[in-house]
């Protein structure tokens, strides 16, 4: 048997400093504070990095252009004004990547009509575009686009700490922070997309459902669909859960029907090409122009989209592995008798089927599309687990 007695390590373990650290480790209050500080530093660090080094991605260009459509209907004028605003902030290397980084970007840079044709897939985020236009007079359109990722990121971090504190699970922040980062929290903060904003709204809605404040939660869920229409998958998953677990079904049914109708109206007036054309563009073959793009349905193309999505998700993204680990963790918590209340288990079920439903409805492989489900599922499971790292917690276990 190996021993550390008589060694430098043995001396260190028996020193006064080691005893003081061991005593500190026995303090739940201290470790709660350290966990909260760790989580806060992670969130603040990511937000500061995003502010200093934002990701000038293609979606940013498209959202800025969509926000400008209310004053520039001519494709050439819209194209010129969009790139003027982006060029004022982006570096030379960032501009090169946006304009010439690949054949698709180069075509969009050279062809204003093709560029405008892409925006039909962005107009459907009517709530997000409206917020961009509201903030534009205050900070400018490009800054508004960045802030709509950074500010929700900070708010989400603060809300997660509030949730952990309310559940007496602050030390769970040591586990939650790396889970959220792996699930794409950092990249979603630096990129200009509505995903962080819709995640904040969805997390609050899930928390309100946990607290049985269903009507307020339903209002937030309805609003979230106008930030990202595909968040209706979360609403539908919660509706199925309400039926299966005996919740009040009517509020979620009304929310689902209203959100579906609102999304269809937004799609119609925004000129969205339809589910299959969008599926073909995103999952089968990218198109330089979406004008009058109405491909015939193809079983081969349909299968290719799902195969590509599954392969890229497993090989290049983290959400499938995290999802499997979360399901295993849920089972282990049940085996250990740490299942929480009925609402907690029902919400984990809703988020699990929502993850599967999101992929089934549109097999995009990127982590950010699943963050609402994976992140909220991580949050609920951590509060059910309530991990303790202090000595008193170890004795309790």
Terminus-to-terminus distance: 27 Å
Approximately how much helix is present in the residues?
A: over 70%
Rounded to an integer in angstroms, the radius of gyration calculated over CA atoms is 24 Å
Oligomer: single chain
Number of strands: 0
Query: Helix segment count?
Result: 22
Note the run of SSEs as H and E. Answer: HHHHHHHHHHHHHHHHHHHHHH
- Output mean pLDDT: 92
Question: Can you tell me about this structure?
Answer:
With 397 residues, this protein is mainly alpha-helical. Helices cover 74% and strands 0% of the residues. The longest helix has 26 residues, at 141-166. It is globular, with a radius of gyration of 24 Å. The mean pLDDT is 92.
Q: What key phrases describe this protein's structure?
A:
single chain; 397 residues; mainly alpha; 22 helices; 74% helix
Write a compact overview of the structure shown.
With 397 residues, the protein is an all-alpha fold.
Helices, strands, pairings?
Layout: H1 8-13, H2 16-25, H3 28-52, H4 58-68, H5 75-89, H6 92-100, H7 103-110, H8 112-117, H9 126-139, H10 141-166, H11 173-182, H12 185-190, H13 195-210, H14 214-224, H15 232-245, H16 249-269, H17 275-284, H18 299-316, H19 319-335, H20 342-361, H21 371-385, H22 391-396
């Amino acid at each position: 048997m190996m021993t550390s007695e008589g060694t430098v390590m043995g001396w260190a373990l028996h020193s006064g400093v080691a005893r003081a650290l061991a005593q500190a480790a026995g303090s739940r209050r201290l470790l709660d504070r350290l966990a909260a500080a760790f989580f806060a530093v992670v969130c603040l660090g990511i937000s500061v990095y995003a502010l200093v080094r934002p990701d000038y991605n293609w979606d940013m260009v498209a959202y800025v252009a969509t926000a400008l459509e209310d004053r520039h209907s001519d494709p050439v004028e819209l194209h010129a004004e969009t790139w003027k605003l982006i060029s004022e902030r982006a570096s030379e290397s960032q501009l090169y990547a946006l304009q010439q980084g690949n054949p698709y970007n180069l075509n969009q840079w050279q062809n204003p009509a093709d560029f405008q044709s892409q925006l039909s897939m962005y107009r459907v985020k009517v709530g997000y575009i409206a917020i961009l236009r509201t903030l534009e007079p205050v900070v400018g359109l490009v800054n508004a686009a960045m802030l709509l990722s950074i500010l929700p990121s900070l708010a989400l971090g603060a809300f997660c700490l509030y949730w952990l504190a309310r559940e007496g699970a602050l030390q769970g922040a040591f586990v939650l922070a790396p889970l959220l980062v792996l699930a794409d929290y950092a990249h979603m903060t630096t990129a200009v997309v509505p995903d962080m904003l819709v995640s904040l709204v969805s997390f609050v809605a899930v928390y309100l459902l946990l607290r049985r404040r269903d009507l307020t939660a339903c209002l937030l869920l309805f609003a979230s669909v106008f930030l990202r229409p595909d968040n209706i998958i979360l609403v539908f998953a919660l509706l199925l859960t309400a039926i299966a677990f005996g919740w009040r079904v009517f509020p979620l049914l009304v929310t689902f029907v209203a959100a579906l109708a609102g999304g269809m109206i937004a799609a119609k007036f925004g000129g969205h090409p339809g589910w299959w054309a969008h599926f073909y563009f995103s999952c089968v073959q990218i198109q330089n122009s979406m004008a009058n793009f109405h491909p015939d349905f193809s079983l081969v193309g349909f299968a290719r989209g799902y195969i590509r999505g599954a392969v890229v998700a497993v090989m290049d993204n983290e959400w499938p592995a995290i999802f499997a680990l979360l399901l295993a963790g849920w089972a282990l918590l049940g085996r250990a008798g740490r299942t929480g209340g009925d609402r907690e288990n029902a919400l984990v079920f809703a988020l699990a089927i929502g993850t599967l439903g999101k992929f089934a409805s549109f097999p995009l492989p990127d982590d950010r599309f699943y963050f609402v489900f994976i992140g909220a599922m991580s949050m609920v499971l951590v509060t059910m687990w309530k991990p303790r790292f202090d000595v008193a917690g170890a004795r309790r276990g």
